[in-house]
Specification:
The chain contains five helices and 17 strands. By secondary structure, the protein is of the alpha+beta class. The chain has two domains: 144 residues, Proliferating Cell Nuclear Antigen, CATH 3.70.10.10; 110 residues, Proliferating Cell Nuclear Antigen. A 13-stranded antiparallel β-sheet has the order 5-1-7-8-9-6-2-3-4-17-16-15-10. A four-stranded antiparallel β-sheet has the order 13-12-11-14. α1 runs antiparallel to α2, α1 packs antiparallel against α5 and α3 crosses α5. The longest helix has 17 residues. The protein is elongated, with a radius of gyration of 21 Å.
Length: 282
């Protein structure tokens, strides 16, 4: 197996740094899937224990100036398990004045992602090298890290802007461990939390509803409009974890609600797609 990539654009370097920082705030460990056309950060916690699932995808051509990969089979993929904080710390060395960033799969005392950062220093260059230990995921386990199917949701709705959502959740998370999300296909959403003393609700109107391409989604839209609002109760800390960790500045946030089962949040920015699956509270 071989992997080598190079970044020359400071904006692309900063984008990778933001993704790394976001992942480190959302999860301790993840699997980095390297494929010919994209790289994906995947985290699968145990859903049965209230865990989340994260899928963060970047098209490699929007990020790298040079990208070469040689995997084990015809799919040309490599799966690497890593500690997200180690990866994020290595990328923190990327500052203005960086000339290039090279990332290679190497074998030292253990398999590593070696990140080589070249910085202009006077009339010469300074090289900073970080070795991020990784575990190569055996091919028999790859199925656990494939892209999740779009869930058969009951309601799909745009969420408020990230800044507004953070402010609301920050106030609510100290009141209860649970959050009830109610939404309909008319663009209405309510966030509610309560304890023995107080009930707090925040209402949003005219958020809009995405139109999905397949007929099944259109049928769901018609059915949900007739049925009315649907709701799901989740652990509020799971949503707070997503919002606090975000640095990718999404242009759209979509919430797909599976009544009484889960919510599937879909963040879209110019170059990054992040999917975040939160099961209903036990």
């Amino acid at each position: 197996m071989r992997f080598k990539a190079k970044l020359l654009d400071i904006n692309c370097m900063q984008q990778l740094t933001r993704v790394g920082a976001s992942m480190s705030r959302m999860t301790k460990n993840c699997v980095l899937c390297l494929a010919p056309k994209k790289i994906v950060f995947v985290s699968n916690e145990r859903i049965s224990e209230g865990g989340t699932r994260i899928w963060c995808e970047i098209q490699q051509e929007t990020l790298f100036d040079d990208y070469r990969i040689e995997g084990k089979d015809n799919s040309n993929r490599i799966f690497l398990e890593l500690i997200t904080d180690n990866f994020a710390r290595a990328l923190k060395s990327i500052q203005f004045g960086v000339v290039s960033v090279k990332i290679r799969l190497t074998k030292k005392y253990t398999p590593c992602l070696t990140i080589e950062i070249v910085t202009a220093y006077g009339n010469s260059n300074r090289i900073i090298t970080h070795d991020v230990p990784v575990v190569i995921v055996p091919q028999r386990d790859w199925y656990e890290y494939e892209e999740p199917d779009m869930p058969q949701f009951d309601v799909s709705i745009y969420m408020p802007q990230m800044k507004v959502l953070k402010q609301v959740i920050d106030r609510m998370k100290n009141l209860s461990e649970h959050l009830v999300i109610t939404a309909d296909q008319k663009g209405n959403m309510t966030l509610k939390t309560q304890n023995d003393i107080v009930t707090v609700e925040t209402h949003f109107k005219d958020l809009g509803n995405p139109v999905w391409a397949n007929d099944a989604a259109n049928n769901r839209k018609e059915a949900s409009t007739q049925i009315g609002a649907m709701e799901a109760c989740i652990y509020i800390k799971k949503l707070a974890q997503l919002l606090q960790g975000q640095q990718i500045n999404p242009s759209k946030i979509i919430c797909n609600l599976l009544a009484e089962k889960a919510i599937h949040i879909y963040l879209v920015s110019e170059d990054v797609i992040l999917q975040y699956y939160i099961p209903a509270a036990m």
